[in-house]
Specification:
Length: about 525
């Protein structure tokens, strides 16, 4: 089974996906005239604004929900893995995919807002790739094909976010706690399940409230403490930066043979961490209450910067400046050691231990515990975000059948299906916590890769409405207006949620029902 999964992962994460991610980012950047640079100040302004409603959350809450999915084990164990198998240069390629990916994130998240709908069961906003894949082309002859495309993406997302990806998070969390405090992985699994059950059963509002408190606090604390240690090793910074850039392009003799691995691991772990193009961000974006889709598109583009340029960079700098790294040949920890910083013990495993060792260089004994606590919070919020995405796509798959009455536990098909999903994701958490790291990461990579293939191809086809929304937003801003979205005026078809809104006030005229 392990051999089959590794082979499948190799096909999914071939050079084709790496080049597709980079090429799409370049293309979207050019088409949007580098929106991730031009509108940087606007991203920050919008992040702090926004309204809530009974159906939607604020822009900031949607951002933190998105960051809850992005900020997780990929920011700690993922960066360590990228450096171990791709060398220090992998960090540069993580930056590259983040910068380019911000434009990709803008496109996908704006589409998520344009084609969102209201859940007939809960009244909450729902959206994401499955929704825009099926709705954007509904007026064309290709409608049946894209309806199937949307269904396939929804099914893959339920599988990935409900089964494959949570196991990676729980595995890293359990491993870190076991290493730091000797806590049984089974104990970690049970405690995590109890906490998760409390939050996810409360619905999107409780998820948003939880994420808006935990994610910003932990992210800031983690970055500050990591940078304190980095600056404590300030004399190593010039050499570290030189090493990153030289090894990224094979200019350093020690890493010349693995420059391809640097690109591969940088892109792979970059996408796993910031999720640009993966199709996860649009789910949180669609939940926001905004007057114009481009607003949340810009906010979500900023989330990519927060994840990779801030948090992943802090981790990478910490590892490299303290010498808490070891680079292996052959993309496996069984390969020959190409280089090492000298701070790691002989038995240090690839993953959180790199970061724990880095913190311990200045905070002896406390670093390991801090990383374990950080991972616990990051991983917990990420699993919660995965659940929300899986639930959203389950709702899409069920469509109007979700409201059918059945004489079972929750009384409707949708309610009972959600209960099953909750049980499955909790089971995945337990399974991941007690499995090996290699198995967990392989399953996670398969889930991320499948979603990325489907979503990036989809948004390359459907991108035009996002640019129309961006131009409309910028035009209204120049006129001194608070932009209000009118899809009919822009010739955008299928945005049924927005068609019910008054184009002058942005207020809803007729309650829109889900038409997935």
């Amino acid at each position: 089974m392990t051999e089959f999964l590794n082979t499948l992962n190799g096909y999914i994460w071939s050079n084709g996906l790496v080049y597709l991610c980079l090429a799409a980012g370049v293309y979207f950047s050019i088409r949007s005239r580098f929106v991730q640079v031009r509108q940087f100040k606007e991203m920050i302004r919008l992040m702090l604004k926004g309204e809530k409603s009974p159906s939607g959350v604020s822009s900031f809450q949607a951002l933190t929900m998105s960051l809850a999915g992005r900020v997780g084990t990929g920011n700690i164990a993922g960066v360590a893995t990228a450096i171990a198998f791709g060398g220090p240069g992998a960090l540069f390629w993580m930056w590259a995919v983040a910068f380019l990916g911000a434009s990709t994130s803008f496109v996908e998240c704006t589409l998520g807002q344009i084609y969102k709908t209201r859940d007939t069961l809960t009244g909450e906003y729902r959206g994401g790739p499955a929704y825009y894949l099926s709705r954007a082309m509904a007026h064309t002859k290709a409608a049946p094909l894209f309806k199937v495309y949307g269904l396939v993406f929804a099914a893959v997302t339920v599988l990935a976010c409900g089964v494959l990806l949570p196991s990676v998070q729980s595995n890293s969390m359990a491993s870190a706690m076991n290493q730091s405090w000797g806590v049984s992985k089974w104990v970690v699994a049970v405690c995590t399940v109890i906490l998760l059950a409390f939050v996810i059963i409360g619905g999107v509002k409780r998820i948003a409230a939880f994420a808006s408190i935990v994610v910003p606090f932990m992210a800031v604390v983690y970055i500050v403490l990591a940078m304190i240690i980095v600056f404590a090793n300030a004399d190593a910074l010039p050499g570290m930066l030189k090493l990153i850039f030289e090894s990224a392009f094979g200019l350093d003799a020690g890493f010349g043979a693995i420059v391809g691995a640097a690109v591969m691991w940088g892109v792979k772990r970059g996408i796993y961490s910031n999720e640009a193009g993966q199709g996860t961000g649009p789910h949180a974006a669609a939940a926001a209450e905004v007057s114009h889709p481009a607003k949340q598109g810009l906010v979500q583009a900023f989330a990519v910067y927060v994840d990779t340029l801030f948090i992943c960079s802090a981790t990478g700098f910490l590892i490299l400046s303290t010498g808490a790294y070891r680079v292996y040949e052959g993309e496996s920890d069984t390969g020959a050691v190409l280089a090492e910083g000298g701070a790691l013990g002989a038995d240090a495993e690839v993953g959180p231990s790199f970061v724990q060792t880095g913190f311990d260089t200045l905070w002896q004994g406390g670093g390991s515990s801090f990383v374990a606590v950080s991972l616990a919070f990051f991983c917990l919020t990420t699993i919660i975000a995965y659940y929300y995405m899986a639930e959203t796509n389950l709702r899409f798959l069920l469509g109007k059948a979700a409201t059918i009455k059945v004489p079972v536990i929750r009384g409707t098909v949708g309610g009972d299906a959600t209960l099953v999903l909750q049980a499955v994701i909790l089971g995945s958490v337990v399974s991941g916590a007690v499995s090996t790291a290699t198995e967990a990461w392989t399953l996670g990579d398969i889930g991320v890769g499948l979603m990325a293939w489907l979503n990036i191809i989809g948004i390359l086809i459907l991108q035009q409405p996002a640019y129309k929304a961006l131009r409309d937003y910028e035009r209204q801003k120049k006129e001194g207006l608070d932009p209000i979205f009118d899809p009919t005026a822009l010739g955008i078809v299928g945005a049924t949620f927005w068609e019910t809104r008054d184009p002058l006030t942005g207020k809803e005229r007729v309650p829109e029902t889900s038409r997935s």
